[in-house]
Amino acid sequence: MTAGKPLLVVVTGPTASGKTALAIDLAEALGCHIVSADSRQVFRDIPIGTAAPSEEERSRVPHHLVGFLPLDAPYSAAAYEADALRVLGGLFAERPVQVVCGGSMMYVDALTRGIDDMPSISPEVRARVLDFYNAQGLEALLAWLEIIDPEMHRTVDRRNPKRVIHAVEITLQAGVPASSLRTGLAKERPFRVVKLCIDMPREQLFGRINARVDAMMQAGLPDEARRVYGLRHLNSLNTVGYKELFAHFDGLMDLSTATARIAKNTRVYAKKQLTWLARDTEVVRLRRDTAFDDAMSLINALL
After folding, report:
1. Residue span of the structural domain in which 133 resides
2. Residue 172 is part of a domain; what is its CATH number?
3. What is the pTM of this model?
4. 192, HSE (Cβ side, Cα atoms, 13 Å)
5. For 240-253, how does the pLDDT look when each residue is reduced to its tens digit (9 = 90+)?
6. Considering the domain boundaries, does residue 2 fall inside one?
7. β-bridge pairing 7-12 and 97-101
């Protein structure tokens, strides 16, 4: 890290690991703000299902990029990169240390490393690919991707329609395989970065996830999902918590089964986050019982 640059403290990690609490404690101690790195918290009207910071938490520390978009707004990691850099530019002018908090690993990477420049997708291409997906399904879309970009077909998350759709869109828009546009090179940033996550045994993490899902249900997640049920076709609602409750509303499962599915699918998502973190050698892992003190010691050594 280059001395003299501002310091960005990134608190990341799997869902329910205690990121929000640690980030708020650190931001209070450092006298700075928090910028969210959560791909669902950017949307309004779904605070329970996205575990958005509460009013009390936001009163303790100002938060940015939380609840600022309508549910039907398109958003991407590239848009987040631009928004987060813009917000941090203003914040660093006031205080040379700031905190980012979130478990959307693509957003964390977009901010700290940058993402490759990709073409903007025209409405015509977007409509063409979406119409194909709606008519033919995911398997047919994957077969199309294999023809036009075999490398992307090999590496894309095949269970994530959004990723597959976007891979096809980019290839069609650019006129070359999307995989050929990836450089893997990190962009220069006007700040230093230290990444932190709270480490704990997987069994303990899964227990915290189960408890969080129960708390969300008691806090009114079914009512929140019912309010947005008419918008269930939107990508912003194609996520754990809402998909299972929408299936319950459709009569496909009872509420107890939906609750169990939410917990299970959240644990699956946490496993993906852990796999991503395992590949990032820059992440400093903290013990939960000493996380704040250890983090502050490291931050003070870098300031």
Report:
1. 123-181
2. 1.10.20.140
3. 0.84
4. 13
5. 999 999 999 999 99
6. no
7. parallel
